[in-house]
Amino acid sequence: MRTIALVGAGGKMGCRITNNLKQGPDKVHYLEVSPAGIGRLEKCGVTVTTQTEALPGADVVILAVPDVAIEAVSREVIPQLKAGALVMLLDPAAPLDGKVAKRDDLGYFIAHPCHPSVFNWEPTEKAFRDFYGGISAKQAAVCALMSGAEKFYDIGLELTRSIYAPVSTIHRVTLEQMAMLEPALVETLAQSCIEVVKEGYDRIIAQGVPQAAARDFVLGHLRIQIAVLFGEVNGTFSDAAYKISARARPVIFREGWQRIFEMDDIREQVRDITNSTKPAA
């Protein structure tokens, strides 16, 4: 039986992983220090374990803690692990920024969920509304072997299918490619664009457009726009839509915005993520 230590088991992602791991065959130690997290674990029906009990014998340690805490937590946890253990991380930011304590006799693996696609078909309302994944909706995941022998990738792959279940597809990428995906593509670019769309939605409601009409209109158009641009349908936009988009791009986007996908800029992005200073309001 494999032994897993889940650090941060009572956090947002930790509880999702906890609910999946407790159904599997592995022996799992659940580590949590915050009173709120411990309370959530009690509701999950599991008992918190101490580091002394959990870490020395762990075959795998999963660090389900916030990016800003990875450096301190890994410096505390990594020295207690046995040689040949696997360290599993859930995000590329801290590893790319050099915030993870390293040992040459350990394996390091990163797995991040893609979350259920906007074009997922799910047979039940519960699965359809599992927007984050890890409960009942199918999702893909991206995985990277940061360091260590290939056997560590195989172990990490198996665990990825467990902690993010149900998993439809696994995509193997490098650490740098994972950082291009997140934060650069989905947070720096996509989230920022959608936040601006939401600001526009709020603005026209304030100007008197009925909220229900605005919501139905923008969400319906977003769906078909995504479907056209990502090849889900064999269609195009109207000539008028292309004309107005061409007019809008230089107004909305600064020239050279594509630099967010250059590795120097991505390293600055992850540095902002791992820095404990809160962003300005």
Characterise this structure.
The protein has 281 residues and is an alpha/beta fold. The chain folds into two domains: 3-173, Rossmann fold (3-Layer(aba) Sandwich), CATH 3.40.50; 180-274. Helices cover 47% and strands 14% of the residues. It contains eleven helices and seven strands. The chain has a seven-stranded mixed sheet with strand order 2-1-3-4-5-6-7, with helices on both faces. Helix 8 crosses helix 11 (263-274). The longest helix is centred in the last third of the chain and has 32 residues, at 175-206. The radius of gyration is 21 Å and the shape is globular.
Q: Which residues form runs of ≥5 with pLDDT under 50?
A: none
Number of strands: 7
CATH architecture term of the largest domain? 3-Layer(aba) Sandwich
* Main sheet: strand order: 2-1-3-4-5-6-7
CATH topology of the largest domain: Rossmann fold
> What gross morphology would you assign?
globular
How many structural domains are formed by the residues?
Answer: 2
The value of Rg in angstroms is: 21 Å
Give the helices and strands as they follow along the chain.
EHEHHEHEHEHEHEHHHH
- Strand pairing plus helix content: what structural class? alpha/beta
Distance between the termini: 48 Å
Main β-sheet: number of strands, strand sense, barrel status? 7 strands, mixed
Number of helices: 11
Mean of residue pLDDT? Answer: 95
Strand fraction equals: 5-15%
CATH class group of the largest domain: Alpha Beta
Name the CATH superfamily classification of the largest domain. NAD(P)-binding Rossmann-like Domain
Residues in helix, %:
40-55%
